[in-house]
């Protein structure tokens, strides 16, 4: 689970400092799908980068699974808007990258990459390279690569923001299916309220200047869908 208490972030700038986050507190249960919704510049990415360990809090506490975040870790999978596949590796090699780093043997790696290739529907593209894939397919690889490391949480920063409407819709459905199957804890950043309502169980709504949480919305409409 994720527990953020009284998180503030002040960036140093050329002409002084800028408070990007003020007293942000939020909680995400295990297996929960939570969105952080707000306008550009309200500090969504800052929260995610701090959760990922890519940026330090100015003050406050940021815990994942009961431990204070100190630097990056494969325990927290990241999916960004811009595709971050390694262009010199095939789809399968991208998915196996973290497992190889951990020293996992090839046979075991292949079992895992087979499983995640199937989960995202890319079995036929295992040997393709990123440049041969569409935007939606690249994001499917990025999701598979993150999940292959069996992360405690999946952190997603506007992952479908650059996709056309139709691809975006099918990726949203795919992500929901994956979440239900894998029971992954997901924190999803977006500025699109429809996307947040469609995907998540709860939404933290933020405002800018300074970045703060305005309210928390219960968005679990699954009661009505089943
Ligand atoms: P969002 O993801 O909601 O668009 P960000 O977290 O990217 O917001 O940024 C929040 C605010 O902090 C913005 O005004 C942005 O310009 C500023 N900011 C982000 N990163 C830095 C940085 N490294 N240095 C200075 N200001 C930053
Ligand atoms: P996003 O697409 O999530 O809004 P940005 O374009 O705001 O991201 O930020 C991209 C990178 O630029 C980040 O690493 C962020 O820290 C940095 N950055 C953003 N705003 C500023 C700023 N005002 N000053 C310096 N760095 C910034």
From TrEMBL:
Query: What InterPro entries has UniProt attached to this entry?
Result: AAA+_ATPase, ABC_transporter-like_ATP-bd, ABC_transporter-like_CS, ABC_transporter_ATP-bind, P-loop_NTPase
GO MF: ABC-type quaternary ammonium compound transporting activity; ATP binding; ATP hydrolysis activity
Q: Which SMART domains match?
A: AAA
- UniProt entry keywords in alphabetical sequence: ATP-binding, Nucleotide-binding, Translocase, Transport
Q: Which reaction does it catalyse?
A: a quaternary ammonium(out) + ATP + H2O = a quaternary ammonium(in) + ADP + phosphate + H(+)
EC number, as in UniProt: 7.6.2.9
What Pfam families does this protein map onto? Answer: ABC_tran
Q: Where is the ABC transporter domain?
A: 2-226
Oligomer and partners: The complex is composed of two ATP-binding proteins (OpuCA), two transmembrane proteins (OpuCB and OpuCD) and a solute-binding protein (OpuCC).
* PANTHER family cross-referenced by the UniProt entry: ALIPHATIC SULFONATES IMPORT ATP-BINDING PROTEIN SSUB, TAURINE IMPORT ATP-BINDING PROTEIN-RELATED
What's the protein here called? Answer: Carnitine transport ATP-binding protein OpuCA
Q: Which organism is it from?
A: Aeribacillus pallidus
**What lineage, starting at the top, does this entry show?**
Bacteria, Bacillati, Bacillota, Bacilli, Bacillales
């Amino acid at each position: 689970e994720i527990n953020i208490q009284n998180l503030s972030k002040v960036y140093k700038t050329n002409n002084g400092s800028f408070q990007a986050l003020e007293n942000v507190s939020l909680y995400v249960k295990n297996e929960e799908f939570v969105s952080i919704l707000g306008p550009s510049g309200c500090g969504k990415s800052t929260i995610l980068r701090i959760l990922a360990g890519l940026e330090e809090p100015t003050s406050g506490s940021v815990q994942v699974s009961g431990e204070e975040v100190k630097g990056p870790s494969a325990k927290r999978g990241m999916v960004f808007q811009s595709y971050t596949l390694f262009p010199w590796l095939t789809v399968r090699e991208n998915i196996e990258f973290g497992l190889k780093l951990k020293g996992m043997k090839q046979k075991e790696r292949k079992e895992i990459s087979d499983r995640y290739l199937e989960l995202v529907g890319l079995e036929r593209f295992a040997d393709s390279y990123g440049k041969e894939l569409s935007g939606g397919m690249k994001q499917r690889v990025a999701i598979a690569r993150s999940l292959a490391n069996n992360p405690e949480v999946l952190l997603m920063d506007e992952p479908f923001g650059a996709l056309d409407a139709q691809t975006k819709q099918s990726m949203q459905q795919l992500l929901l299916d994956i979440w239900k199957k894998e029971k992954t804890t997901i924190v999803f950043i977006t500025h699109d309220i429809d996307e947040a309502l469609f995907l998540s169980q709860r939404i933290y709504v933020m405002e800018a200047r300074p970045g703060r949480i305005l309210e928390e919305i219960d968005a679990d409409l699954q009661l009505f869908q089943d």
